[in-house]
Each structure stands twice: as C-alpha cells, then as structure tokens.
Design brief:
GO molecular function: oxidoreductase activity, acting on the CH-NH group of donors, NAD or NADP as acceptor
InterPro entries: NAD(P)-bd_dom, NAD(P)-bd_dom_sf, Polyketide_Oxido-like
Structural class: alpha/beta
Number of strands: 10
Largest sheet: 8 strands, mixed
CATH class: Alpha Beta
CATH architecture: 3-Layer(aba) Sandwich
Radius of gyration: 16 Å
Order of helices and strands: EHEEHEHEHEEEEHE
Protein name: NADH-flavin reductase
Domain NAD(P)-binding: 7-194
Shape: globular
Strand content: 15-25%
Oligomer: single chain
Number of helices: 5
CATH topology: Rossmann fold
Distance between the termini: 29 Å
CATH superfamily: NAD(P)-binding Rossmann-like Domain
Helix content: 25-40%
Pfam families: NAD_binding_10
Length: 210
C-alpha cells in the first residue's frame, strides 16, 4: 500500500516507518525537516501538517498521523484533527491516528479517564485533554474513514519487539504482570496489522503487552 506518515522521523513515527518498510509498503514521510540520511524505499514530503491539502494525500491508501504538539501548544492536537478531517472528506484514504493513553477509561462503566485520576502527572494533562478532545471530534465527524490507536499507560521507546499484544477498546488494559505498558515496536506491529487486516474501522482501540 501507499502510506503517508505525518511525523515519520519522531519516536513513534520511526517505528511505524520501519515496520511498514519491512512489510513492503511504499512510504512517504511527511515532515517539516527532511533528515540528511534517509533509508532506501523511503521518500519525503516536506510540509507542515497544517499546509497539507487534499491533493497532497489523495493518492495514499492510508495516512498515519503521528503528530506531537509542542509544549504550550497542546490545543494543536484538536486543530490537526479538524484539518485532517477537512482534507480527507470525500476521499478513500484511511486515517490512522497515533493516540494517547490518557483518554482511556480506568473503570468498567467508562466514566473516568486516566488523565482524571489523582496519580496522572500534571505535566501530561494538557496533551491528554487535547488529544481526548481531538478523538471526540473525530468520533463525531462524517465522511472520513478513521481508526484511532491508543497505547498503554507506559509507552516504551526501548521496549522489546515481541510481536505479541492484547487488544481492548475504551478501557485501559493491564498485562499479566500487572503493568499497563506496550513497546513502540509492538505498537507499530499492531497498527500495521490493523492497516493490513482492518478490524477497528470508525473506532478507537488500545493495545497492551501480554
């Protein structure tokens, strides 16, 4: 497939790019700054996400948004969702969003988000609140084919690539070891699995280490 990845050179974006390349997909990294050293079979579109147009993305089969708003500008998570919905409407491009864990619920009745709990770090709340609002906007949008994947509470940059994970919907998952965690490598595997064999269209879901 032809896959565009917004933020392809970021932490999560790098794992997604590498996983997609190993599976033989045609990848375009959408970035503000093109790195000096690049990989084979990887092309770049140098453009700010807010300047993307329908013409830029309409030839992709999938557009992955791995955007991370700068500190102090967390409201851009909502603005990015609005912009992507606008340019994707009326196309066949599937939108995949790298979400956050803060918007997951911690109770079976789905009344309390993780970011609303006492132990959630204050410094992460602006990002989580705005990412949650962006998800709500996406859920209420029409004419866009989307999937939103939230990681577990601990999103591990240097975690092992096991190729195994368990899947949930709106509630925070816990592994058999009592931890809510997923490596970025396994998260990338989960997203590419979903891209290749869709099971969560028009849904948010989450993955956790076994």
């Amino acid at each position: 497939m032809k896959i565009g990845i917004i933020g392809a050179t970021g932490h999560v974006g790098t794992f997604l790019t590498n996983e997609a390349l190993t599976r033989g997909h045609e990848i375009t990294g959408i970035v503000r700054n093109v790195p000096e050293e690049t990989q084979d079979h990887l092309t770049f579109l140098q453009k700010d996400v807010f300047n993307l147009t329908t013409a830029d993305i309409q030839d992709f089969d999938v557009l992955i948004c791995s955007y991370n708003a700068p500190e102090g500008e967390e409201e851009e998570h909502v603005q990015v969702m609005k912009h992507l919905v606008d340019i994707l409407k009326g196309t066949d491009v599937r939108l995949f969003v790298v979400g956050g864990a803060g918007s997951l619920y911690v109770d079976s009745k789905l009344t309390t988000h993780l970011f609303e709990t006492d132990e959630f770090p204050d410094e992460f709340k602006p990002t989580s609140i705005n990412m949650s609002a962006g998800l709500d906007y996406l859920k209420n949008s029409d004419g866009v084919r989307w999937t939103y994947l939230s990681p577990s509470k601990d999103f591990l940059l240097n975690g092992a690539r096991t190729g195994k994970y368990k899947v949930g919907q709106e509630q925070l998952l816990i592994s058999k070891y009592g931890k809510s965690e997923i490596s970025m490598a396994d998260y990338a595997i989960a997203m590419l699995d979903e891209i290749e064999e869709p099971e969560h269209q028009q849904q948010r879901y989450t993955v956790c280490a076994m």
